[in-house]
Amino acid sequence: MSTAFAGFLGALIGAGASLLGLLIQQQYQTKRERMKIAADLGLSEYQSALELGNRSGRAYVIPPVSAYVVFHARLLEEMSKGKIDSEKIKQLNMELEELMAAFPKQEM
Questions:
Q1: Has residue 97 been placed in a domain?
Q2: Are the beta carbons of 103 and 68 closer than 8 angstroms?
């Protein structure tokens, strides 16, 4: 009886370790996908800002693409946590303003 129990316990531990590995892998894959989406969104917004600046016909200041990517990464992170309310949007906008102010101003 003890060998059967040991075999069952070994199978249970193996299955648990496999399940834990899958959960960890899924978590990192989700994070990687979220960062790819943030990079795509940030690049798109950066290109839109460049286009608007070029159309204006005046000198303009635009932060680097990394500022847009960081903002979208934070936004997607908050969205993954659940419901976003007006206070969270205000907080994210304040973070964006601080982020944009951190980059040196370069006229284009």
A1: yes
A2: no
43 within some domain: yes
Residue-wise DSSP of 47-80: HHHHHHHHHHTS--B---HHHHHHHHHHHHHHHH
Q: What pTM did the predictor assign?
A: 0.70
- Check: CB of residue 63 under 8 Å from CB of residue 71: no
Q: Per residue in 5-48, pLDDT tens?
A: 888 888 889 888 889 999 999 989 989 999 999 999 999 999 99
pLDDT, tens digit, 9 for 90 and up, residues 60-75:
778 888 888 988 998 8
Q: Total structural domains in the chain?
A: 1
